[in-house]
Specification:
The protein has 6 helices and 10 strands; from the N terminus they run E-H-E-H-E-H-E-H-E-H-E-E-H-E-E-E. The protein is α/β, with parallel strands linked by helices. It has 2 domains: 103 residues, Rossmann fold; 107 residues, Formyl transferase, N-terminal domain (Rossmann fold, 3-Layer(aba) Sandwich). The strands form 2 sheets. Strands 3-2-1-4-5-6-7-10 form an 8-stranded mixed β-sheet, with helices on both faces. A two-stranded antiparallel sheet has the order 8-9. Helix 1 runs parallel beside helix 6. The longest helix is centred in the last third of the chain and has 24 residues. The chain is globular. Glycinamide ribonucleotide binds next to helix 1, strand 5 and helix 6. The site of glycinamide ribonucleotide has 13 residues, from helix 1, strand 5 and helix 6.
Length: 215
């Protein structure tokens, strides 16, 4: 089967993008990154893509009068590259309803909390402030319910009593770098499907393989 063509959307540093680029560069990996799109010209992740010889496109959101026109420009770039799956990796724009509808069932995101806890921004701070003992990362389908789409896989890390936002974020980010490539492999192997009642099924994979424990 041909490798799944992936488009990665970034806004910044791009460490998750780097984890995906490295995974896709391993022999036999069932996905390939066809295009990286950034809404910011200064996104550090663009250099990672260039280093791996992956095409990039910058679509500055400020050049567009409204969200939908920005979304349509991003979508056109993805379509022109033949993208089959969109991976958000630190993409910090909220879509108009048009985009998740256009890419329905073919767009995923990585979020630095154990959803449905801590949606939105500053989620590591939210986790610390709430007193939870466990947090982590979630890969989920993107729908028009912000950070609320069906969950594909999660990684759990401890929250230590003396954690700062920086130390917790670093622990979660390390787990993200394991989780996202694992999930992308499953998509590449065409194992992932949406079942009824918000459930995601990963064919041929033990159910607990979709939970990473990072004590
Ligand atoms: C990651 O922690 C990612 O989960 C988060 O932004 C960071 C991006 O880092 N995404 C969100 O908060 C999305 N709402 P990176 O640019 O180094 O991959």
């Amino acid at each position: 089967m041909a490798p799944l063509k992936v488009g990665v959307l970034i806004s910044g540093r791009g460490s998750n993008l780097l984890a995906l680029l490295e995974a896709c560069a391993t022999p036999g990996f069932p996905a390939t990154i066809a295009l990286v799109v950034s809404n910011r010209t200064d996104a550090g992740g663009l250099a990672h893509a260039a280093r791996f010889g992956v095409p990039t496109a910058v679509v500055p959101h400020r050049d567009h009068a409204d969200r939908e026109s920005f979304d349509r420009a991003v979508s056109a770039a993805l379509e022109a590259a033949g993208v089959e799956l969109v991976c958000l990796a630190g993409f910090m724009r909220i879509f108009s309803p048009w985009f998740p509808t256009r890419w329905a069932d073919r767009i995923i995101n990585i979020h630095p909390s154990l959803l449905p806890s801590f949606k939105g921004m500053h989620v590591q701070q939210q986790a610390i402030a709430s007193g939870v003992r466990v947090s982590g990362a979630t890969v989920h389908f993107v729908t028009n319910d912000l950070d609320g789409g069906p969950i594909v896989a999660q990684a759990a890390v401890p929250v230590h009593p003396d954690d700062s936002v920086e130390t917790l974020s670093a622990r979660i980010l390390k787990a993200e770098h394991d989780l996202y490539p694992l999930v992308l492999r499953w998509f590449g192997e065409r194992r992932v499907r949406l079942a009824a009642a918000n459930r995601v099924v990963i064919d041929g994979v033990a159910a607990d393989a979709a939970v990473l424990w990072r004590p």
